[in-house]
């Protein structure tokens, strides 16, 4: 998935949102699929399988999430999306966007930095 595809995914269906503001979540084929805050901005992340979620969990310093029944499968992550996003946000703010993008890209997770105008900032 290219950054352009991610931006399209994050903004698709955003007719009710403010113009130019990215929205995310609710994509059943990606869990989590959301905009996350970082120490200096925000980034969009779309996790499409259990391997990617395991890698994300390890990067967040929470490898046990990969075996937690609430998050162990894509279906479970989608069902517990709000809870998962809240937990991830507690960890994403600890590092800069550039650091997250480098680490996420290294392990093969689709991600893209967002400009302040895309996050409502």
UniProtKB/TrEMBL annotation:
<dbReference type="InterPro" id="IPR003673">
    <property type="entry name" value="CoA-Trfase_fam_III"/>
</dbReference>
<protein>
    <submittedName>
        <fullName>CoA transferase</fullName>
    </submittedName>
</protein>
<dbReference type="InterPro" id="IPR044855">
    <property type="entry name" value="CoA-Trfase_III_dom3_sf"/>
</dbReference>
<dbReference type="InterPro" id="IPR050483">
    <property type="entry name" value="CoA-transferase_III_domain"/>
</dbReference>
<dbReference type="InterPro" id="IPR023606">
    <property type="entry name" value="CoA-Trfase_III_dom_1_sf"/>
</dbReference>
<keyword id="KW-0808">Transferase</keyword>
<dbReference type="GO" id="GO:0016740">
    <property type="term" value="F:transferase activity"/>
</dbReference>
<dbReference type="Pfam" id="PF02515">
    <property type="entry name" value="CoA_transf_3"/>
</dbReference>
